[in-house]
Structures are given as C-alpha cells and as structure tokens.
Structure prediction request, 350 residues.
Amino acid sequence: MSLLKKINVFRRKVTKMLTSSIGKKNKPNKPFDSNTNIKRILVSRPNHRLGNQLLVTPLLQELETLFPESKIDLFVKGGVSHEIFKNYSQVDQIISLPKKHFKELGSYLKAWFNLKRKKYDLAINVVKGSSSGRISIKTAKSTFKLYGDEIENNMPSNNDINHIAKQPVYNLRAELERLGMEIPKKKVPSLNLKLSKIELAKGKSDLEKIYNNNLKTVSLFTYATGDKCYSKEWWDVFYKDLKSNLPDVNFVEILPVENISQLNFSIPSYYSKEIRDIAGIIANTSVFIGADSGMMHLATSSGTATLGLFSVTNPTTYEPYGKMNKGINTLEVSNLEIIEMVKTILNSNL
Prediction:
C-alpha cells in the first residue's frame, strides 16, 4: 500500500471516530405546524462509486412522492452523478466534491462553500456511517435535519431496514411520522435510472447489432473489485453450465471500464464508458447475472431481472430487490440452482 493510501485510510478512521457523534446531541426536530412547507431539500451522499449513488434513487423517488413540488439538491462526490440523475426532474443542483481531495483542494473547498450558502427546509444524510455526510448536514442551513440515526427508536417490523437503499427511506418515514406527517404504507421504491424511450431504443439497436434473432438474451458481468471478483476458473465452469442447460439463449458479456473479461473475451461482448448506454442494452436483455458491483446495481436500475452473486459481501445489505431480482450466496447455492432461477425468469412474462 502506498504512503498516500495509508494516509487516506488513517484519515478516514480518525474522521469517522471524530464525526460519529455529530447530530446525536442536537435537539430533536420540532414537529410540523401549519406553516411547514418542504420546498428545498438537500440529500447528501458524498461517495463517488457508481453503485453507492444508484442506491440513492429509492430515496429520491420517495421524496418526489411525498413532496412533489419540491426541488432537491444533491451533495455528492465525483462526476458520475450528472449522468445517474439526469432524468430526475426534481433534482436541481448537484454539488460535487472532487474524487481526490488533496490534488483538487480548491474544488473541494468550493463545494463546501456552495453547500453553506444555500438554505433548505429538509437536509438528509443518506448513510449514517458517512463522516462527510454527517458533517455536510451539520454544515447545511436547514430547518429540519436527518443525520441517519432517527430510525433507531422506530424500527420497522421487517428486515428491510438492513438494506442500504431501503434504510434511508424507512429513516425518512419514521422521522416524518414523528413530526406529525401521515405516510402511506407501501413498499420501498426499487432502484431506477429512469431510462428514456430513446435510450431504451438505442439499447435495443445496440443489442441487435450483436444478436439479430428472436432468442432471449442473458447478460453477464464477470468482473468486480477486490475479493468480490470471481476467478476465471469459476466463470469458465459457470458459463459452460449455463450454455449446456440453456442452449436456445443468447449470452452477451458486459465489459467493465477496465475492458477486462473473466471469460477471456470468448463470447460476444459490449463495451462502453457511458453508463446510460450500458444500462440501455442491459434493459433489453431478459436476465442479468453478475457479482456484487456497481454494474449489478446499474442492471437493477435498468429494470432487468437481476441475479447478484455474493461470496464475501452481505446480500441482506446490498442484494438487488424488487420484481424477480435476487441476491445469491454462491457458497451455499449450486450453479444448477442458479440456472433454475434463470429458467424461471425466462419462462415468466417479464
């Protein structure tokens, strides 16, 4: 590990320790009154990873439903947010921290200044363990503030609270109910990139350039970061099992930005650096299979049935949900059992 990485690891540990109590000693939000009007909302998720930002989309949909006349600002990190949220009409300003603080100190300080100069009716930290998230809510000028801890005194009756995308929605609902607002009891929205008809049509055209037949297509993503990435040997065996049990199905590999294939580019593939183009082609496949990754969450947000493969991370926290989506612990589930899940999806009316 380089010296800079060691410094960053140490910095994160110290920052988390110092910020963990932010918001906990504040006075509770005062209940809504007849003059309460939520028009300006801040949502803070300063993390640059694709998956972590896609996991914010259920909260945004919830806010759009509860406060349809509001405008939402996002406090994020990196540049991918503009593509992810471009079709969220209520998203107004995206305040973005640079990915590398030390190398872009001017841009880093400017983002915090922009955050400070605006006024909000409601400010929400999406993930309670985020140090920068907690600091941003403390810094923001807002009538009502949610730091991410409010749910602890009002737990839902199911296990959904453990999912990283559902937790902020339940947290919001619990606090709003405490403040006197009636919240409809319904399922938490699924991840949604809000692909347009034009983007879906382009995805269909891109897929037809690879396979121009009437067979259903299964998209595979064989890459992932760190220990989440399954070996080439694992994918070789799994793909052979897929092919032998699903002879009348097209298979296409969605390649990562690194242009790496755990199948050694042995099957037709698709490569793009544009996340909405990638989501568009995945949306035109019948099933997506891939390890826990940003691409898995992108597939879920495209609306395609998604089977996420888990071996080191917790499916309860990160698994794709909604429709026929499922997180699969491959240490406990065989290849043939996964293939049966694929067959069930292919034989459905999706």
The chain has 13 helices and eleven strands.
